[in-house]
Amino acid sequence: MAEYDVAVCGGGPAGIIAAVAAARNGARTILIERYGFLGGMATLSLVSPISVFNKKRKRIIAGIPLEFAEEMERLGGADTSFPSGNIHFDPEIYKLVAQRIVLGSGATLLLHSYITNCGREGGRVTDITLENKSGRESIRAKYFIDCTGDADLVKYAGFPFRIGEGERRELQPMTLWFRLGGVDTDNLENMEMRETGKRHLNMRIRNKLLSLDKDVPKFGGPWMLTTFRRGEASINMSRFAGDATDVYSLTEAECRLREDVFRLVALLKENFEEFRNCYIIDTGTQVGIRETRRIDGLYEMTADDILSPKDFPDTVAKGGHPIDIHKPDSREQDLRAVGEGYNIPYRTLVPKGSENLLVAGRSISATREAAGSIRVQATCMALGQAAGTAAAICSRENLPVAEINCAELRVALESQGAII
């Protein structure tokens, strides 16, 4: 049994930044990840780009997330210059920079470890149980941050959460992202999400696929994006409606979508000259997940908070992505434009009843509509910086997470370059 000030569960975009922020603010920190590398949906599911650092060509997210992106750019694996604030990246460089920034912060990194349970006394999580090649282990910490994306630790601890909206458990579909080689990228349009106010799917290919008489698997988009290498395309188009918190549904999604990817690639080869000589380089290590559990927090973000931004006294992060809800039973999206950067209050990170557990990433407290905007990578990273900094302050001052001085937290975040 090891003991830490802060234990961060989940090494995706939110978890990476949370661990770095906690360690840099003086907390003895551990980051726990179930795969053998960091990055979450970005690297294991190939989800690209990192969206969005800008709104109306102005930075709304900076601090540690932007530092991370700029280091990828220095290594030739990202481009931070797009006016849209979307940052395309190389997943392998993302993995490398992620482990470097975490280890460089002084945090401990534990890979290949799956959280299976936790202990709780009143409003406090006392420890988490892990399974890995070494056997069963327990990690104790003063504070915990749930960055699993699925609010797994919140579930194990028995704090309240929801799935879907009201009595409807209709979730956004899962996607198996894939990369192709042998593509005529010189003649494939719309591969960079460079501009603001523009839909970046390939309408020409979409319309042609919809017009085919033959059976076409359910698809969305398609979005066919740059990998920084001529002849390669990173593609988001497969769809499966299911529940990623149900292992049977998740298994069915993996198998069904793998079949669909091969069928979709065959259709691309048969019908589009740009793909005549293409081949599959790889698919995501697991399906990409847009929506599962969301916590019941001290404040719930709503669509109105996003479309008509509020000046929250405890604002700790900003967002700017459209409200984007992919429909599980069709090829369409419910897409609502967001006019300006909006504010996210600290209270959305605090589960009701929690004394030492925070949440960062797509499972914070929000309605389904609001979560449709918040769930993207850059916003999750900014929430990670807020949660990690807050956990370090609470550890240093021995405070329940709901009693932190938010003015002090905001000053600390601004001193680290965060835009709030």
Task: Explain the overall architecture.
The strands form six sheets. Strands 1, 2, 5, 6, 7, 8 and 19 form a seven-stranded mixed β-sheet that branches. With 420 residues, this protein is of the alpha+beta class. Strand 6 (114-121) and strand 7 form a beta hairpin. The protein is globular. The protein has helices spanning 13-24, 41-44, 63-74, 91-104, 152-157, 203-211, 247-271, 303-307, 368-374, 377-397, 406-415; strands at residues 2-9, 29-32, 54-55, 58-59, 108-110, 114-121, 124-132, 135-146, 161-163, 178-181, 219-225, 233-238, 279-283, 293-295, 315-319, 323-326, 333-336, 342-345, 357-359.
Q: Alpha-carbon distance between the termini?
A: 38 Å
Average residue-wise pLDDT: 96
Unreliable stretches (pLDDT < 50, length at least 5) are none
Structural class: alpha+beta
Query: What is the overall shape?
Result: globular
Rg, rounded, reads 21 Å
Give helix % range.
25-40%
Strand content: 15-25%
| Topology pattern, helix = H, strand = E | EHEHEEHHEEEEHEEHEEHEEHEEEEEHHH
Number of helices: 11
Please report the total strand number as a whole number.
Answer: 19
Largest sheet: 7 strands, mixed
Can I get a quick summary?
The chain is an alpha+beta fold.
